[in-house]
Amino acid sequence: MGQPLARLELQVIYPPLFRRIPTLRAAIPLQDVKFKYDAVIYGLHELPVTW
Fold it and tell me: Which end of the chain is more exposed for a tag (fewer CB within 10 A), N or C?
């Protein structure tokens, strides 16, 4: 239940977010983004953004 709900939430939030802040982008090169490999839940440690 959790993973499908999270995917749906992201599909709902991204389009209005990018319409509202069209210049939103990563503040660091994407190859420098640090991932959590050692946690129960895979994901990012952080994703700095700028607009």
Answer: N
1 Cβ neighbours under 8 A, 6+ residues apart: none
Q: How confident is the model at residue 22, as a pLDDT?
A: 96
20: helix, strand or coil: helix
5-22 pLDDT, tens digit each: 988 999 999 999 999 999
Which parts of 1-51 are beta strand (E)? 25-26, 35-36, 43-44, 49-50
Q: Which residues contact 26 (CB under 8 A, 6 or more apart)?
A: 33, 47, 48, 49, 50
